[in-house]
Amino acid sequence: MPTMWPLWLVASLLALTQALPFEQKGFWDFTLDDGLPMLNDEEASGAETTSGVPDLDALTPTYSAMCPFGCHCHLRVVQCSDLGLKAVPKEISPDTMLLDLQNNDISELRADDFKGLHHLYALVLVNNKISKIHEKAFSPLRKLQKLYISKNHLVEIPPNLPSSLVELRIHDNRIRKVPKGVFSGLRNMNCIEMGGNPLENSGFEPGAFDGLKLNYLRISEAKLTGIPKDLPETLNELHLDHNKIQAIELEDLLRYSKLYRLGLGHNQIRMIENGSLSFLPTLRELHLDNNKLSRVPSGLPDLKLLQVVYLHTNNITKVGVNDFCPVGFGVKRAYYNGISLFNNPVPYWEVQPATFRCVTDRLAIQFGNYKK
Q1: Most buried of 78, 162, 246, 332, CB within 10 angstroms?
Q2: Rounded to whole angstroms, how far apart are CA atoms 311 and 207?
Q3: Residue 358 and residue 335: Cα distance in Å, rounded?
Q4: For residues 75 and 10, what is the distance between their CA atoms, to the nearest angstrom?
Q5: 3-state SS, one letter per residue, for 201-218
Q6: Ranges for the LRRNT domain (predicted)?
């Protein structure tokens, strides 16, 4: 049944625009899955589209007779994936809203490749060989909100991105530098996924993110040695896992007081300076697993909304009775529903039960399984 797949895809696309922050129901995540048939909502951005849900029936006229050779076209979805295409095909219907070109051999986006596609809402170019993008390639895409161009050969952020863009997935490329002004005019941008690029801290020019009001940013699997200090202060989610970060210093997080979720797993963090976490009053989830911490970070009891802490696979040898919960009559507005401490050299039989007095259920605590 060749038409069933696009119908399901359109339904998924419409549903994703309704996501709210921190509910893990937001954006497609191509970090684990290469293709659209394997959509993964594991990491949400919480973004809301700027123009609402696209109305597929309201667009007139329709050009249903137009469909590139070898592609599947239905309900304004044009699916041309896995065809070995060397270039963007011609004869794409002007009323197309979703164009899927992933898993092809496209190496260049030319000036007129998307001519006339004024209604395009989502463009999927994942897993091609794109290394060159004409400065006017995206000019016709006045309503584009989602651009997925991960797993290509790009060495820079594409120029002149559409001002309507809400979400950019550009991970697993060869980008080493993010210059100032590259995101200029993108007032609607909410989510950027740029992990898997050889980015160092020095690769971000001062002011590179000026003007952006991002909700979600991921720079995982890069070459960062510290937390970047010039990211948008509007962030609710920041993921810096799988880098080479060695410490969190006092003012590293000063700018990010609106964070709900902070991902720092799989780094080389040995030290978190006292007071560093005090700048995160709304934090709900903290990932510090797979690092080199020798103790539970100080300041956790003061994070009144914190519910999940990942500390597994570190070098923690002791857990104090006040490491997680407020002392005495200290107020915690949300109890923990997940604390992971497994794969640490902690003699768990020495940990006092009162240590977890502000945890919803003892099953929320994970201990044990330590191997030297």
Answers
A1: 78
A2: 33
A3: 5
A4: 8
A5: HHHECCCCCCCCCCCEEE
A6: 66-98
How many whole angstroms separate alpha carbon 113 and alpha carbon 163? 18
**What residues does 100 pair with on adjacent strands?**
79, 124
How far is Cα 19 from Cα 332, in angstroms, rounded to an integer? Answer: 27
Residues found in the chain:
372
Q: Whole-prediction pTM value?
A: 0.83
Whether residue 299 contacts residue 278, with contact meaning beta carbons closer than 8 Å, is answered with: yes
What are the pLDDT digits (tens) for 142-164? 999 999 999 999 999 998 999 99
pLDDT per residue over 48-96, tens digit each?
444 444 554 444 444 556 899 999 999 899 999 999 999 999 999 999 9
Judge contact between 296 and 325, C-beta under 8 A.
no
Strands 72-74 and 77-79: antiparallel
